[in-house]
C-alpha cells in the first residue's frame, strides 16, 4: 500500500474530527439526560407540591365559607356561600384525585387517607347545609367545631406529609443530576487531552519524515553536481518523496550509462548503442552520431583489409582530417588495383607511376611490368619453333626463367627421340619428367605399342607356320575316321531293318487282340442280362413255393380233424383213422420238402445276384482293356513308320561321311599354302629392331598351336551340321505323330553319364 | 384191444415244450387261429368270441388260464373247439393251444395220479399224468379246469352273444 503524504494529512485531520464528533455526541447525550431528569422532577414531585398547595387552599376556603354561613344571617348570602362551597369542594376533590394519580409508593397511603377524610367531610356537608338553611345555627357550629375540625386537621397534616415526601424526591433527583454532571465533565476533559496528544504526535511524525527525505535528496544532488554518480539513495516509505528520489535516481543512472558508453568508445568498442531517452536528449543523440560514424569508418576499413575497395569516405566537415587522408589512401589503392587487374589479363599498355623515393609498391610494380614484356617476346619466338634462345637467371629465386630454360631443353630432347624411332630403332626408352608430362608419356606408350605389335606379329607368323603343319596331320586322321564311320553306319542300317520287321509283327498282333477284347466285352454284357433273368425266375419260384406250403398245412389240419372224427367214431372209424394218419404224414413230408425248396431258391437268388454284380464290375474293366489294346496297336503302327524313317536317315548319314572324306583332302592342300605365306610375313617384319623380339617368338609358338587345331575341328563339324539337324527333325516329326510313344534314345546321352543310379 | 386192459383216446397239444392231453370225446373240431371278437370287462384269459359254424363260441387262452406267459400266435397256433359236459348241460368253448400234435391212445394202467409234493396245491385240474419215452403228458380234467365261476362266465358270455 502507498502511504503518501496526502494520505497521512487526511488521516491526521480525520482523527481530530472523529475525536471532536465523539466528544460532542457524549456532551449532547448527557445534556439530554439532564433535561429528561428535570422534566421528571417537574412532572412528579414539583407537581405534587403544587397540588398539595392547591388542595390546602381549597380546604381553607371551604372552612372559611362554612364559618361564614354560620355567621351570616342573610339567607340569600348563605345560598351564595353554599354555591361557592360546592365549587371549592369540586376543585378540592379534583386536586386530590390528580395528586393521587401522581403518587409514588412512599406517599400513596397518605393520599388514600386524604381521600377517606375528604369523603367523611362530604358526608358532613348535607347535614351542615340542612342545619344552616333550617336556622339551627347552634347545631351547625357544633358540627363545624366538633367532629369536622379533626377532619380538617387530618387533611392538613396529610397534605404537609405529602409535601415533605415530594421535597425529599426533589432533593434525590438533584443529587443524581449533580453526579451525572461531574462524570460527563471528567470524561470530556480526559478525551480532549488524549486527542490533543495523538494529534501532536502525528503532526510531528509527518514533518520529520518529509524533512528526512528532502535532506537525502539534497545530499544526492550535491554529490552528482561534483561528478560522483555512485551514491545510491535509500528511502523506505512509499510516498511522493520516494517518487522524487526515483526521478533523481533515473537521472543518475542515465548519466552513468552515458559515461559507460563514452568509456567504451574511447577504448574503441563500438558494440554499445547509446540510448536516446527522448527527442530532447541532445547528449544521447550526439553520442549516437559519434558511434555511427566511427562504425562506418571501421566497416569501410574492414572491407579494404579483405580487398573490397567499395568504401567511399565522406568528410563530415572541411576540418575532418581523418576522412580526407582516408579518401586519398583509398584513391591510391584503386589505382594500384586497376594496374594489377590489367597485368593479370596480359595488358601491358599502362606504365605504373612511382610517387616518391619511399614508394616501394610503385617501384616493384614497374619492375614486374618490364619483366612480363620480355618473357612474352621469348615465348613468341619459341612458338615459331626457334629453340636457340638461352634465358638468363636474374636471381637464385627466378623460377620463371629457370622453367623457360628447362622447357627449351626438353623440347630439344623429344625432337631427337622422334628422329630415332623413324629410323626403325625401337630400343629407345623415353622417360617422362613428371606425372603430367603428356608429350613424353605419349612418346613412351607409342614406342611400347610398336614393340608389342612387332613382337606379336612375329609370334603369330611362327604360330601359323607350325599350326598349318599340325593341321595336315589332323586332316589325315579325320579321313580315316570317316571311313570307319561309313562301315558302322551300314551295320546300323541292317539291324534297323530287322527291328522294323519285329515292330510290324507287334502291330499285327495288337490289332487282333483289340478285336478279341471287344468281343469279350459284348459277351460279358450278355451274361449279365442272363443272370438278371435267372434271378427274377428264382424269385417267382420262391413265391409259388409258399402256396404249396400253405396247402400242406391245411391238409395237415384236415387230416388231424379227420383223425379226431375217426377216434370219436370208435371201432367204426378205425380204418378211416389209418387213412387220416397217412394223409397227415404225406402233408408233413410235402411241407418239409417245400421248406427245403424255399431255402434253396433263396440261396440261388443270392448267388445269382452276386454273380450279376461281379459281371457288372467286369464289363467296364474289359472295355478299358479293349481301349488300351487299341492304343497299343496305334502306337505300334507309329513305331513302324518311325523305323523306316530312321533307315532313310542312316542312308543319308552314309553319303555325308563320304563327302567328309573328300573335304579333308582339300584341307591338307590349303594348310601347306598357309605355311609358305607365314614365312613371307616373318621376313617383312624383320625391318624393326627390338632387343627381345626373337626370344619372345620362340617362347610363344607352342602356346598358340592349340587354338589353330581347334579352329580346324570346328569347321569340320560345321560342314556336317546341316544333315545332322535334318535327322533330328525327322525324329521330332515321328514323336509328334506317335504322341509320346516314340523314344529318342540319342538325345542327352552324354548328360546321362553325369547321373548316378540309385534304384 | 382186449378187455383186460382198457384204453382211451386223447388229443395231445403243446404249450411251449410241455405236452397236455384232452379226451377225444370232448373235442369237436380243431381250427386255425383267428382273431376273436373281444368282450369288454371279461377276465384276462377270455380272448373273446368266434363264429364256429353259425354259433358264437367263447375262446379261452389256455396259457393265461394256467398262469403261463402269453406268446404271440404263429402258423402252428390252433383253436380247439370243445364240448364240455357239465352237470346239467354241455358247454361249448374254444381253447387256444400253441400246437395240436395228434390223436394218441393211452392204456388206463399207464395213467398215474397227480404228483404229491407234500402240501396242498391246486392240482385238481389234472386228471392224470402219462409217462412216455419222449416225456410226460398231463391229462386235463376239463370240467375242473374250467371251474364253476369260469364256466358260468363263459356261458353267460355265450348267452350275451
Give a topology summary:
The complex is a heterodimer of chains A (759) and B (161).
Chain A: H1 5-71, H2 75-102, H3 108-133, H4 137-225, H5 240-266, H6 282-305, H7 321-344, H8 360-383, H9 399-422, H10 438-569, H11 574-685, H12 693-738, H13 749-752
Helix pairs in contact in A: 1-2, 1-4, 2-3, 3-4, 4-5, 5-6, 10-11, 10-12, 11-12
Chain B: E1 7-15, E2 18-23, E3 27-32, E4 46-52, E5 55-61, H1 62-65, E6 78-85, E7 90-97, E8 99-107, E9 111-112, E10 126-131, E11 136-140, H2 142-145, H3 148-160
Parallel strand pairs in B: 2-11, 5-7
Antiparallel strand pairs in B: 1-2, 1-8, 3-6, 4-5, 6-7, 9-10, 10-11
In brief:
Chain B: Residues 7-151 form the CheW-like domain. The complex is a heterodimer of chains A (759) and B (161). Chain A has helices spanning 5-71, 75-102, 108-133, 137-225, 240-266, 282-305, 321-344, 360-383, 399-422, 438-569, 574-685, 693-738, 749-752.
Structure, explained:
Chain B: Residues 7-151 form the CheW-like domain. Chain B: It comes from Rhizomicrobium electricum. Chain B: Pfam families: CheW. Chain B: This is Chemotaxis protein CheW. The complex is a heterodimer of chains A (759) and B (161). Chain A is an all-alpha fold. Helices cover 83% and strands 0% of the residues of chain A. Chain A is flat. The relative contact order of chain A is 0.05. Mean pLDDT of chain A is 80; it is low at 695-744 and 746-750. With 161 residues, chain B is mainly beta. Chain B has one domain (7-160): CheA-289, Domain 4 (OB fold (Dihydrolipoamide Acetyltransferase, E2P), Beta Barrel), CATH 2.40.50. Chain B has three helices and eleven strands. Chain B has a six-stranded mixed sheet with strand order 8-1-2-11-10-9. A five-stranded mixed sheet of chain B has the order 3-6-7-5-4. The longest helix of chain B has 13 residues, at 148-160. The model of chain B is unreliable at 150-155 (pLDDT under 50). At the A-B interface, helix 10 of A face strand 3 and strand 8 of B.
Amino acid at each position: 500500500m502507498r502511504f503518501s503524504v496526502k494520505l497521512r494529512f487526511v488521516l491526521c485531520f480525520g482523527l481530530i474530527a472523529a475525536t471532536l464528533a465523539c466528544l460532542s455526541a457524549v456532551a449532547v447525550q448527557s445534556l439530554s439526560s439532564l433535561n429528561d431528569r428535570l422534566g421528571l422532577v417537574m412532572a412528579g414531585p414539583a407537581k405534587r407540591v403544587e397540588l398539595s398547595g392547591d388542595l390546602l387552599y381549597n380546604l381553607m376556603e371551604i372552612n372559611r365559607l362554612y364559618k361564614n354561613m354560620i355567621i351570616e344571617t342573610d339567607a340569600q348570602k348563605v345560598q351564595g356561600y353554599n354555591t361557592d362551597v360546592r365549587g371549592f369542594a369540586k376543585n378540592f376533590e379534583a386536586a386530590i384525585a390528580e395528586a393521587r394519580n401522581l403518587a409514588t409508593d412512599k406517599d400513596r397511603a397518605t393520599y388514600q387517607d386524604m381521600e377517606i377524610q375528604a369523603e367523611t367531610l362530604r358526608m358532613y356537608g348535607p347535614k351542615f347545609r340542612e342545619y344552616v338553611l333550617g336556622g339551627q345555627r347552634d347545631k351547625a357550629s357544633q358540627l363545624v367545631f366538633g367532629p369536622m375540625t379533626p377532619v380538617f386537621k387530618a387533611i392538613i397534616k396529610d397534605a404537609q406529609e405529602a409535601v415533605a415526601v415530594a421535597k425529599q424526591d426533589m432533593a434525590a433527583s438533584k443529587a443524581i443530576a449533580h453526579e451525572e454532571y461531574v462524570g460527563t465533565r471528567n470524561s470530556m476533559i480526559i478525551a480532549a487531552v488524549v486527542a490533543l496528544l495523538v494529534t501532536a504526535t502525528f503532526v510531528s511524525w509527518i514533518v520529520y519524515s518529509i524533512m528526512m527525505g528532502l535532506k537525502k535528496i539534497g545530499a544526492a544532488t550535491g554529490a552528482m553536481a561534483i561528478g560522483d554518480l555512485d551514491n545510491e539513495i535509500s528511502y523506505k516509505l512509499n510516498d511522493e518523496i520516494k517518487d522524487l528520489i526515483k526521478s533523481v535516481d533515473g537521472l543518475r543512472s542515465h548519466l552513468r550509462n552515458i559515461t559507460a558508453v563514452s568509456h567504451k568508445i574511447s577504448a574503441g568498442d563500438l558494440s554499445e548503442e547509446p540510448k536516446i531517452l527522448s527527442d530532447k536528449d541532445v547528449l544521447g543523440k550526439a553520442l549516437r552520431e559519434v558511434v555511427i560514424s566511427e562504425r562506418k569508418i571501421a566497416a569501410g576499413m574492414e572491407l579494404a583489409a579483405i580487398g573490397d575497395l567499395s568504401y567511399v569516405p565522406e568528410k563530415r566537415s572541411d576540418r575532418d582530417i581523418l576522412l580526407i587522408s582516408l579518401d586519398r589512401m583509398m584513391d591510391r589503392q584503386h589505382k594500384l588495383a586497376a594496374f594489377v587487374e590489367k597485368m593479370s589479363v596480359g595488358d601491358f599498355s599502362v606504365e605504373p607511376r612511382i610517387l616518391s623515393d619511399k614508394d616501394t609498391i610503385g617501384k616493384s610494380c614497374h619492375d614486374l611490368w618490364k619483366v612480363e614484356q620480355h618473357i612474352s617476346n621469348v615465348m613468341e619466338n619459341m612458338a615459331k619453333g626457334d629453340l636457340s634462345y638461352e634465358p638468363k637467371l636474374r636471381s637464385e629465386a627466378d623460377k620463371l626463367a629457370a622453367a623457360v630454360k628447362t622447357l627449351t631443353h626438353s623440347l630439344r630432347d623429344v625432337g631427337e627421340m622422334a628422329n630415332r624411332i623413324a629410323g626403325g630403332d625401337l630400343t629407345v626408352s623415353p622417360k617422362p619428367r613428371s606425372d603430367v608430362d603428356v608429350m613424353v608419356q605419349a612418346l613412351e606408350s607409342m614406342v611400347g605399342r610398336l614393340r608389342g605389335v612387332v613382337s606379336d606379329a612375329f609370334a603369330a607368323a611362327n604360330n601359323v607356320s607350325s599350326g598349318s603343319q599340325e593341321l595336315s596331320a589332323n586332316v589325315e586322321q579325320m579321313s580315316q575316321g570317316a571311313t570307319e564311320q561309313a562301315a558302322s553306319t551300314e551295320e546300323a542300317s541292317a539291324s534297323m531293318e530287322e527291328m522294323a520287321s519285329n515292330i510290324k509283327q507287334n502291330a499285327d498282333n495288337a490289332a487282333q487282340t483289340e478285336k478279341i477284347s471287344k468281343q469279350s466285352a459284348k459277351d460279358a454284357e450278355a451274361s449279365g442280362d442272363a443272370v438278371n433273368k435267372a434271378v427274377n425266375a428264382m424269385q417267382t419260384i420262391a413265391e409259388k413255393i409258399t402256396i404249396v406250403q400253405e396247402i400242406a398245412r391245411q391238409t395237415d389240419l384236415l387230416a388231424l380233424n379227420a383223425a379226431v372224427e375217426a377216434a370219436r367214431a370208435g371201432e367204426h372209424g378205425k380204418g378211416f383213422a389209418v387213412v387220416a394218419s397217412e394223409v397227415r404224414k404225406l402233408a408233413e413230408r410235402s411241407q418239409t420238402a417245400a421248406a427245403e425248396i424255399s431255402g434253396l431258391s433263396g440261396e440261388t437268388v443270392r448267388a445269382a445276384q452276386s454273380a450279376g454284380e461281379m459281371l457288372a464290375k467286369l464289363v467296364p474293366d474289359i472295355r478299358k482293356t479293349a481301349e488300351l489294346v487299341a492304343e497299343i496297336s496305334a502306337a505300334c503302327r507309329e513305331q513302324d513308320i518311325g523305323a523306316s524313317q530312321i533307315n532313310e536317315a542312316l542312308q543319308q548319314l552314309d553319303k555325308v561321311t563320304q563327302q567328309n572324306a573328300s573335304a579333308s583332302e582339300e584341307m591338307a592342300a590349303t594348310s601347306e599354302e598357309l605355311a609358305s605365306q607365314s614365312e613371307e610375313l616373318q621376313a617383312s617384319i624383320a625391318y624393326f629392331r627390338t632387343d627381345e623380339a626373337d626370344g619372345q617368338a620362340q617362347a610363344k609358338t607352342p602356346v598358340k598351336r592349340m587354338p589353330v587345331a581347334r579352329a580346324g575341328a570346328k569347321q569340320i563339324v560345321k560342314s556336317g551340321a546341316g544333315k545332322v539337324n535334318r535327322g533330328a527333325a525327322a525324329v521330332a516329326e515321328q514323336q509328334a505323330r506317335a504322341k509320346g510313344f516314340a523314344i529318342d534314345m540319342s538325345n542327352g546321352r552324354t548328360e546321362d553319364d553325369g547321373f548316378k543310379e540309385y534304384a | 384191444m382186449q378187455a383186460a386192459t382198457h384204453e382211451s383216446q386223447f388229443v395231445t397239444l403243446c404249450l411251449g415244450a410241455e405236452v397236455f392231453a384232452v379226451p377225444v370225446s370232448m373235442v369237436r373240431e380243431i381250427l386255425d387261429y383267428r382273431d376273436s371278437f373281444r368282450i369288454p370287462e371279461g377276465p384276462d384269459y377270455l380272448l373273446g368270441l368266434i363264429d364256429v359254424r353259425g354259433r358264437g363260441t367263447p375262446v379261452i387262452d389256455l396259457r393265461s388260464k394256467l398262469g403261463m406267459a402269453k406268446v404271440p400266435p404263429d402258423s402252428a397256433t390252433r383253436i380247439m373247439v370243445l364240448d364240455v359236459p357239465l352237470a346239467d348241460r354241455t358247454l361249448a368253448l374254444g381253447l387256444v393251444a400253441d400246437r395240436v400234435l395228434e390223436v394218441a391212445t393211452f392204456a388206463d394202467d399207464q395213467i398215474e395220479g397227480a404228483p404229491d409234493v407234500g402240501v396242498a396245491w391246486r392240482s385238481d385240474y389234472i386228471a392224470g399224468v402219462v409217462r412216455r419215452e419222449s416225456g410226460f403228458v398231463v391229462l386235463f380234467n376239463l370240467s375242473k379246469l374250467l371251474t364253476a365261476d369260469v364256466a358260468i362266465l363263459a356261458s353267460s358270455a355265450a348267452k350275451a352273444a
